[in-house]
Write a structure and sequence with these properties.
With about 300 residues, the chain is α+β, with helices and mostly antiparallel strands. The protein contains 15 helices and seven strands. Helix 1 runs antiparallel to helix 2.
Length: about 300
């Protein structure tokens, strides 16, 4: 559990440009046993960063910033029209409650943080030429409902660049510039649909099975009964990685487990579609609390 949390913290620290903290966590991950002293050293690093930048951030370690909300003139005009158009106190309550609920939401991009710049930086470091695109980033969400899942998306994106997308000279007939797309969409029932899609190597089922068997995670008998979906889901096993070696990007086999647990904690699901040599798509469906219970609110 500690390793998964640290791995996620490392990825997000790197995404926010906190390279020194990211490197510190990577060194701690190399340790056979993670001690309390190591955890305390990470905390001390964050404390120093916040103290050194207090005049800019106005934030101390362990302190949550006071939430602020931005309301456009158009939103205020719509609210006024709805209020003057209401015909009862109950209708007015409904209007105000729904409006306040919406105002308190954040866009997905706000929850993600500065991901686009980090992805391009990471691609450059790994010698990948990619076009990274975020779609649906304007969609508003309840930060508390989705933040754990959204902040774990870093594992899917890093893996796509490190394992999925090939260097230019290995892409053969495919376009030299690879595509990596992170998209968000609201379903009719209010669920948030998140997809991470690349046009890279795809997942090698045989390699996944071979690695899983070698680690003793499954038996030969179990392997023979597995369909494609079962095999793809093996990548969520704790400690499983098909990487040839561990790097500061991936290879520890804890990132995929971390995102699965974040999704399941929110009663969500994740599905993998992959075609060898063509690419991979992860689809996450995350239920959200969209219904307004006025009686409970009152």
């Amino acid at each position: 559990i500690v390793r998964r949390e640290l791995h996620t913290l490392k990825g997000n620290s790197a995404a926010f440009g906190l390279d020194a903290i990211s490197s510190l966590i990577h060194r701690i991950e190399d340790q056979a046993l993670i001690t309390l002293d190591s955890i305390n050293s990470v905390e001390s690093s964050f404390v120093r960063f916040l103290d050194n930048n207090y005049e800019l951030l106005k934030l101390r370690f362990g302190q949550s910033p006071e939430p602020t909300y931005v309301v456009s003139h158009g939103e205020l005009d719509n609210l006024k029209a709805d209020i003057f158009g209401s015909h009862s106190v109950e209708a007015l309550k409904n209007i105000m409650f729904k409006w306040l609920t919406n105002v308190q939401k954040s866009s997905v991009l706000e929850v993600l943080g500065p991901i686009e710049g980090y992805i391009q930086k990471l691609a450059n470091e790994l010698g990948r030429c990619i076009n990274f695109e975020v779609r649906g980033g304007h969609i508003k969400v309840d930060r508390d409902e989705v933040k754990d899942v959204v902040q774990n998306l870093i594992h899917l994106l890093r893996n796509a660049i490190d394992h999925g997308i090939e260097p230019e000279n290995e892409r053969e007939e495919k376009p030299q510039v690879a595509q990596l797309i992170l998209s968000f969409e609201e379903s009719r029932d209010g669920s948030l649909i998140i997809q991470v899609e690349d046009d890279g190597r795809g997942i090698d089922k045989n390699q996944v099975l071979k690695r899983t068997l070698a680690m003793g995670k499954i038996s030969e008998a179990e392997a023979k009964k597995m369909n494609d979906e079962d095999i793809y889901n093996l990548i969520f096993l704790d400690g499983l990685s098909t990487a040839a070696s561990v790097s500061n990007i991936s290879g520890r086999g804890v990132g995929m487990r971390a995102i699965l647990e974040a999704i399941e904690a929110r009663n969500g699901t994740i599905k993998i579609n992959s075609k060898l040599g063509k690419g991979t798509k992860f689809t996450i469906i995350l239920p959200t609390n969209q219904r307004v219970d006025m009686q409970a609110a009152a």
